[in-house]
């Protein structure tokens, strides 16, 4: 039986590994091209604009689609050859509405648990337990048709979680939710990744939203890998200072570069990589020597997000 | 807050119990679909039509039993009972097949199934078998009412009851053949569209509109045409199969088909429909987008 022989705490197998993965539709539309990426356990954000190929990657991982080239492995297994084993260990929350309006959430999630292989009694128990975890209580006995969008998203999440998968694939879980609903959904996803100990790959076109809960980010654009990085490793050694002066920022940029600092210019703001406390003094001295008036000198925290944002917007 | 009302959150529990495989999962889809066909686990509105039709069929059967008990000979044989319900039951199939198949297409629920252990063809076969079962239950109710009623009516004691149950066997055989053929027509048609109304219309069109064509060809055709025109309409076709398999003396049979010497052709066509229908449903779900 899949997943039983390996205790969860020792499960360090990569979530998804791809090698020159390619998917074309009908020979013309290219959804993924030459995608090589390794996604490690944790809460991983899969970001990219709409149509970047996020959903296609998820569907390839589930074996719902066949790649037209390259290789993909999920939890160390081939989703095409060992599809049953992969699908028994993975939970999937689709982007679009997929719920029967005339069934109650309890009935529906129980059914889905059974289709995942849980015997009748555990299916019922886990369905109500999972619905409780996602925040549905007495409502779960009412037909889904009368639910709000937020409640429907929770049911979709519950059906993906009900069989206690090792990996959750969430396709745009915050779609259609208001800001408060988004916040709740994200904190739920965070809880699943931390408290529940289930690895999560969460797709979103809103980077700013998911970067807060993720341990790693993978950005794809037009079917190609833009960047893949663990958030902790990147933020540790690459804090940026934002420097703003009255004018002549190009002169300051030259001077700072001459002094051995790494400087990027973004509109009127200079982004200087921080190398210890000396960097502050170097900038202060340079500004004073050039007789410029300093408007702003502050540490910039969301550097990873900005790197992604920049590249996404460039592409 | 009163102590009794407190819900203690014991946190998330991992599931260590058994995980049954693909076969059990497919069985679960089948059971769920049969329940869906009769509105079990759904609102009263969803139960109304299938349960109402079932009750009506049983009632008609009961009336036939009562009439038979007053006459020296039975009004209808078990095979005849099956044949006379087939038109009505094709209407049941036209309503239930879209319920089983089109709803999942409409709700885009297929990705939820296909991302779980059952294969696409498992899903297709589970749905088809559920439809066969639902139709068989519709035949089974009246057959059961009739066999129980006739058993009470017999004058030959236990041997009379045994002979009634012996007569029931061809009836069950006919019900099975009818269920398979009707399902093999209704399910592939319903799987073409997510709009239930269209699916129902499509199925009704096949069953009803082909009837006058078959009738006209039977009346105006000559030679083999006269006998073979019946295969155009599924209900007449099934009637012909009954005559061929269970003999033409099935009292009370709808008497629609004039099979002449072509009984084998009727049998072959029915088999082909069952075979092709199954193949088409499987093919459809291999291709359908998920």
**What portion of residues of chain B belong to β-strands?**
under 5%
What would you call the quaternary organization? heterodimer
Number of strands of chain A: 13
**Helical element count of chain B?**
10
Please state how the strands of the largest beta sheet of chain A are arranged side by side: 5-6-7-3-8-9
* C-alpha geometry of chain A: elongated
Give the N-terminus to C-terminus distance of chain A in angstroms: 44 Å
User: The biggest beta sheet of chain B, please?
Assistant: none
Q: Termini distance of chain B?
A: 48 Å
Major protein interface: A-B, 43 and 35 residues
Q: Note the run of SSEs of chain A as H and E.
A: EEEHEHEHHHEHEHEEHEHEEHEH
Key terms for this structure?
heterodimer; A: alpha/beta; elongated; disordered N terminus; B: 290 residues; mainly alpha; 10 helices
Describe this structure in words.
The complex is a heterodimer of chains A (315) and B (290). Helices cover 37% and strands 26% of the residues of chain A. Chain A is α/β, with parallel strands linked by helices and 315 residues long. In chain A, helix 3 (105-115) crosses helix 4 and helix 4 (120-133) packs across helix 5 (149-161). The radius of gyration of chain A is 23 Å and the shape is elongated. Chain B has helices spanning 22-37, 44-70, 78-106, 110-114, 120-153, 157-190, 196-220, 224-228, 234-246, 263-287. Classes of the chains: A alpha/beta (315), B mainly alpha (290). Chain A binds chain B through residues 1-4, 8, 59, 62, 64, 83-84, 87-88, 90, 92, 94, 96-103, 107, 111-112, 114-119, 122, 126, 129, 133, 143, 159, 163-164, 195-197, and chain B through 11-22, 24-25, 28-29, 32, 41-43, 46, 103, 107-109, 111-119, 290.
